[in-house]
Specification:
There is one protein chain. Helix content is about 40%, strand content about 15%. It is an alpha/beta fold. It has a domain at about 1-85 and about 185-280: Metal-dependent hydrolases (TIM Barrel). A 7-stranded mixed β-sheet has the order 1-2-3-4-5-6-7. Helix 2 (about 45-55) links the parallel strand 2 (about 35) and strand 3 (about 60-70). It is globular, with a radius of gyration of 18 Å.
Length: about 280
């Protein structure tokens, strides 16, 4: 069933390379029957994506991925079934987007100091619909020959302790969860295997997330190794959280895993979609 369901994806509204229409069409071609568009800190692609999904007979879920600062670390919280008209959510995301430009200026200045010039304009060239992210800087660095691919960029640049890193304060975990749940949505901790937290900090994060109203954790996602999947399935059960699945697809050649290729959730997981009425339409 998870191969038919993909609850984490990105379009050109944030740092994907396909428009919302193209993304939904690609998902349909890969056999996905229920899709969530979860652009970073932006809801602008949802209407276009929903319209395309309806035309293709797919079930579409309004989503977003919110940037959060937790104990001076950046984590991401996915909101599923959010209401784009919910004013606190829309305003909170607007403030985050404004902060993204300030971070981009700081990242460009850091790259300037090691002799890589023009990165701000270069990154914005890839940010076709406005929002700026590290992925846009990564594509610029690949284009200019500073790394062979986007994965190599994030080993050499843009991360803590490397050129191009700029510390930034995103939304608080409490605010992100409140915006999502206040809009009628479901808060899901995105790709926990990507956070270098250590065991104690991960347990603390999951406890705080649940206490604030978080309901799920991504167990199956593009960046999780096969060993991570049962580990986070166990933690989801331990903290009474539902399990989610999403490719985190960003476009051809920009992602860990193509759509329609997600493995099943481990036995015993409670899927975040287990009681959704949309489920009946894809079975």
């Amino acid at each position: 069933m998870p191969s038919l369901i993909d609850l984490h994806s990105h379009s050109t509204v944030s740092d994907g390379t396909l428009t919302p229409e193209q993304l939904v069409t690609h998902a349909s071609e890969r056999g996905v029957r229920m899709l969530a568009l979860t652009d970073h800190d932006d809801l602008d692609g949802l209407e276009e994506a929903a319209r395309t999904a309806a035309a293709l007979g797919m079930q579409f879920i309004n989503g977003v991925e919110i940037s959060v600062t937790w104990h001076r670390r950046t984590i991401h919280v996915v909101g599923l079934k959010v209401d784009p008209e919910h004013a606190p959510l829309a305003e909170g995301l607007r403030v985050i987007r404004e902060g993204r430009h300030a971070r981009a200026v700081g990242m460009a200045a850091s790259l300037d100091r090691i002799g890589i010039s023009g990165s701000l304009d270069g990154a914005y060239h890839y940010a076709k619909r406005g929002i700026i992210s590290r992925s846009h800087f990564a594509r610029f660095l690949v284009e200019k020959g500073h790394a062979k691919d986007v994965g190599a960029v994030f080993r050499k640049y843009l991360v803590k302790g490397k050129p191009g890193y700029f510390e930034h304060q995103w939304a608080s975990l409490e605010d992100a969860v409140n915006w999502i749940t206040g809009s009628g949505g479901i808060a899901v901790l995105a790709h926990p295997g990507r956070y270098d937290l250590g065991r104690v900090n991960m347990l603390t994060l999951l406890h705080e997330f649940r206490e604030l109203g978080g309901k799920g954790v991504e167990v199956v996602t593009g960046s999780h190794t096969p060993e991570m999947v049962p580990h986070f399935a166990k933690l989801a059960h331990q903290f009474d959280l539902m399990s989610s699945a999403g490719s985190d697809y960003h476009g051809p050649g920009q992602t860990y895993l193509d759509m329609g290729r997600l493995p099943d959730l481990p036995h015993g997981c409670v899927p975040v979609w287990h009681d959704w009425p949309e489920l009946a339409q894809i079975q």
